[in-house]
Amino acid sequence: QVQLVESGGGSVQPGGSLRLSCRLSGASITTYNMAWWRQDPGKERELVARISPSGSANYADSVTGRFTISRDNPYTVYLQMSSLKVEDTAVYYCNTLFQSFNWGQGTHVTVSS
């Protein structure tokens, strides 16, 4: 059974850092464009960062220069988040860019002073 498991979230102050991890079990991420999304309650899920099989990355304007997506084939994707802002507070999810797998539970990130 294919399963995505996100981890690494927590509560930090503005300006802090977190490193999120996403591990895929039951399949390999090697040939997939992978991505991180985030969602606030009551809002639509937002694409935050994406990474191609070759490692080319793209970011939402709101996180460019602060977040870095990386991959450790065959099973893991990371999101390094720095200079965190209050508005980064959300539940963070990973999946393929085209949402090929069932969503995991996500990992909660809270940024507050």
Task: Describe the structure using short key phrases.
113 residues, mainly beta, 4-stranded antiparallel β-sheet, 10 strands, globular
What does this protein look like?
It is a single chain. It contains no helices and ten strands. The chain has strands spanning 3-7, 10-12, 18-25, 34-39, 46-51, 57-59, 67-72, 76-81, 90-96, 107-111. It is mostly beta strands and 113 residues long. 0% of the residues lie in helices and 49% in strands. A hairpin with a 5-residue loop joins β5 (46-51) and β6. The protein starts with a strand and ends with a strand. The mean pLDDT is 96. Strands 2-10-9-4-5-6 form a six-stranded mixed beta sheet, with no helix packed on it. It has a four-stranded antiparallel beta sheet with strand order 1-3-8-7, with no helix packed on it.
Strand content: over 45%
Query: How many DSSP-defined strands?
Result: 10
Cα end-to-end separation: 40 Å
Q: Main beta sheet, described?
A: 6 strands, mixed
Output the helix-strand order.
Answer: EEEEEEEEEE
Overall helicity: under 10%
- Mass-distribution shape: globular
- Helix count equals 0
- The Cα radius of gyration reads 13 Å
- Protein structure class: mainly beta
Give the strand order, joined by hyphens, for the main sheet. 2-10-9-4-5-6
**Overall mean confidence score, pLDDT:** 96
What are the segments in which pLDDT stays under 50 over at least 5 consecutive residues?
Answer: none
Assembly state: single chain
